[in-house]
Amino acid sequence: MLTLDLKRAEDLFDREEELRKLIGAIVRDDPLILILGLRRIGKTSLLRVGLNKLGYHSIVIDCRVFEGKTYVTYTDFIKALENSIDNVLPKTRRLVEFVREVRGISVQGFKIEFSVKEKPTLISLLETLNSYASNENTRFIVAFDEAQELIKLRGVRVLPAIAYTYDNLRNIVTILTGSQVGLLYRFLKRHDPSSPIYGRVRTEIRLENLSREKALEFLEEGFRQYGIKPSKHIIEEAVERLCGNIG
């Protein structure tokens, strides 16, 4: 694969406009951002490049781990959440101090653990992240990668937490990426008046497949970086098969 989990803007091929929109939305404090596009088209890389460029602390909950499951339990979700928080705790000791104050959450070193008995709520954690960001005069990004998988979730109410964040936690920006757009809209209950986020404005950033010319350029540059010189025929055949999907 020529596409990696990139973090530098210069490595993000032909996504300057999408990156500009994402950064602009975060800087404007747009409370809910959707990054939409087919699988392996570059949504996660766009997200990580944007976060890296801005320098805000963030947690990215990787919902891809739920693929293949018929339903997702509270324990499944908490494990993914713990992993995402563990990735950010070593970067700031101040955040550790804030997270320790959440009832039902313990921190050992830079490892977080949710109490199964007390079951701390997602909202209580988000409130703490917001307090930390407010104290540091910054923003905190909470992202769910491949968020349509959350439609399988049982025992955790994510939508009300997103709505609460939207309405009350001004220092948090929520980002959802999704490759199955229809399923993501179903999870969000897009047209359902009973949805906790019904009527709230969302910023949508859509990633489309590359044009044939751009796909050729992408492959040629990728091969060049790896010191490989395939024939023009092979590159053109790859473009035809991939249909402009750079993953």
Q: Would you give an account of this structure?
A:
- The chain is 42% helix and 15% strand.
- The chain has 247 residues and is an alpha/beta fold.
- The chain has two domains: 9-208, P-loop containing nucleotide triphosphate hydrolases (Rossmann fold); 210-247.
- Helix 1 (16-27) packs across helix 2 (43-54) and helix 8 packs across helix 9 (232-242).
- The radius of gyration is 19 Å and the shape is globular.
In short:
It contains nine helices and seven strands. By secondary structure, the protein is of the alpha/beta class. A five-stranded parallel beta sheet has the order 2-5-6-1-7, with helices on both faces.
Compute the separation of the termini in Å.
7 Å
Taking pLDDT < 50 over at least 5 consecutive residues as the criterion, the unreliable ranges are none
Question: For the CA atoms, what is the radius of gyration?
Answer: 19 Å
Mean pLDDT: 87
Strand line-up in the sheet with most strands: 2-5-6-1-7
What is the H/E order?
A: HEHEHHEEHEHEHEHH
Number of domains: 2
CATH fold title of the largest domain: Rossmann fold
Structural class from helices and strands?
Answer: alpha/beta
Top-tier CATH class of the largest domain:
Alpha Beta
CATH superfamily of the largest domain: P-loop containing nucleotide triphosphate hydrolases
| Named CATH architecture of the largest domain | 3-Layer(aba) Sandwich
* Helical run tally: 9
